[in-house]
Amino acid sequence: MSKLVPVRPAQNFRNGLHLFRNRKVLWQMMREAVSGRYKMSFLTMGATILAIAYIIFPFDLLPDYIPFLGWIDDGLIFYFLLKRLTKETQRYNRSKAMERKHSGGLQ
Description:
Oligomer: single chain
Helix content: over 70%
Number of helices: 4
Distance between the termini: 56 Å
Largest sheet: none
Structural class: mainly alpha
């Protein structure tokens, strides 16, 4: 009987790898969202702000001074932030492709 390999860890790794490869796109998306040229989804904007605040501030569900256990909640928040930003960068790429299509490819 063959051993089944779970797909989830590979998918999770791909989400992080996608953001790392597209980090320039991510920063461009963030700059355009702040300047108002790109309308980021309310869920992504709220999740990003809350996740960064949760990771930076010392008030956690599991205090950070407890080794390993204190970092689990921060890691989970960071994981969900990566997933959300991956979806948002894909949405951003689609919107930029549509802009290029409608403008005739000229920038």
